[in-house]
């Protein structure tokens, strides 16, 4: 081995470095996460120079703050998730499954931003001709968009210092490498050092940097967990790659809320915004079918109407089968136990299948009453009226608890043509008068089921 090079063990979860292998990481307590990688010792003079911070000491009271001017991406759904737009000098990580549309989304952003800003798109996975083919499928692009294919971060840094762009997109971080780190691209050391270099570029030069990150089979960004701690914003692109819709969700955002989501639809010419997800999710709902109930979930400040479907039938085996798609399986079992204990339903010898139509994944407690009503509707074979919406949290005693942002849920239901709303009785207080929709308050599961 060359002089100065050694090997060390790194934790794939948190990036902790150790001189020998250990079964459990002492930092994050993860088991079997230590991997051996070659490293290189950097001279102390280089370390001191890299750690040197420019600037002067400043008192907190002397710092003037104002409304930070954000850069609008041209996609309202993305701006909503980011908290109003891109914050200058921010580092944004975009993760998602292969083929979900990460590169397509960022290329669409480049089309809008390059009209007024200087944008540099750096690809380590595709050639210039391949990017051009994808761009032609999306539509016309301004001439100001700069493309660059390179994987060496040392070369990329010199190009960025020379061109001084406003926006830089790195696709992807797992293909980038630094020459002084001897391990392969995509390893723990390379991903950590590459992200640190990009962070210094973003903060030092005032450039907003987007980083594309691949995910593992568990659904987390590949590489050390410290990668998500270093960046300012972490966005996850969710959804089935074979389905039409995509959900963009913020799991970390230093400049906005982490409760907002953006909904997109994959089309032949790229990603299209779904400005009314409720109407999109209720499209094709059957009329007069038992086990079908419309409920409302809140994602940040956005109410989304969903169809909960349930199918309850007698089992042919000794052990009944229970399935939940789009919601928590354990929560469904809990609600079925409440129905059996508090409402007298004999579900111990029944198969039960619960599904959130459209492929959405929701776990908000306000879906409880919708799931209970759909199970009761299918068990009794009585259909819930098509113009009724149901939401509320169900407790173990069979009580219906109040939920937050009730007025926003009711207004969304009214906008889509619903005339009745079954909700917790405690949530009706303080709503005031509502015209065009009838409010029915319930305080227990028995009261709600009696309305079938």
Structure description:
The protein has 452 residues and is an alpha/beta fold. It has 13 helices and 21 strands. Strands 6-5-7-8-4-9-10-11-12 form a 9-stranded mixed sheet. A 7-stranded mixed sheet has the order 15-16-14-13-17-20-21. A 3-stranded antiparallel sheet has the order 2-1-3, with no helix packed on it. Strand 1 (5-11) and strand 2 (17-18) form a beta hairpin. Helix 5 (153-163) packs parallel to helix 6 (188-205). It starts with a strand and ends with a helix.
Produce a short descriptive summary:
The protein is built from 13 helices and 21 strands. The chain has 452 residues and is α/β, with parallel strands linked by helices.
The main β sheet shows up as:
9 strands, mixed
Quick one: how many beta strands? Answer: 21
**Integer average pLDDT:** 86
**N-to-C CA distance:** 76 Å
The structural class is alpha/beta
Question: What share of residues are in beta strands?
Answer: 25-35%
The number of helices is 13
How much helical structure, as a percent, in the residues? Answer: 25-40%
Characterize the overall form: globular
Q: Largest beta sheet: what is the strand line-up?
A: 6-5-7-8-4-9-10-11-12
- Low-confidence regions: 41-53
Cα-atom Rg, whole angstroms? 26 Å
Write the layout of secondary structure elements.
Layout: E1 5-11, E2 17-18, E3 34-40, H1 44-51, H2 76-82, E4 91-96, H3 102-113, E5 119-123, H4 128-138, E6 146-149, H5 153-163, E7 167-171, H6 188-205, E8 208-214, H7 226-230, E9 233-238, E10 245-253, E11 261-267, E12 270-273, H8 277-281, E13 292-299, E14 302-314, E15 322-325, H9 329-342, E16 350-356, H10 368-380, E17 388-390, E18 393-394, E19 400-401, H11 406-415, E20 420-424, H12 425-428, E21 438-442, H13 445-450
Parallel strand pairs: 4-8, 4-9, 5-6, 5-7, 7-8, 13-17, 15-16, 17-20, 20-21
Antiparallel strand pairs: 1-2, 1-3, 9-10, 10-11, 11-12, 13-14, 14-16, 18-19
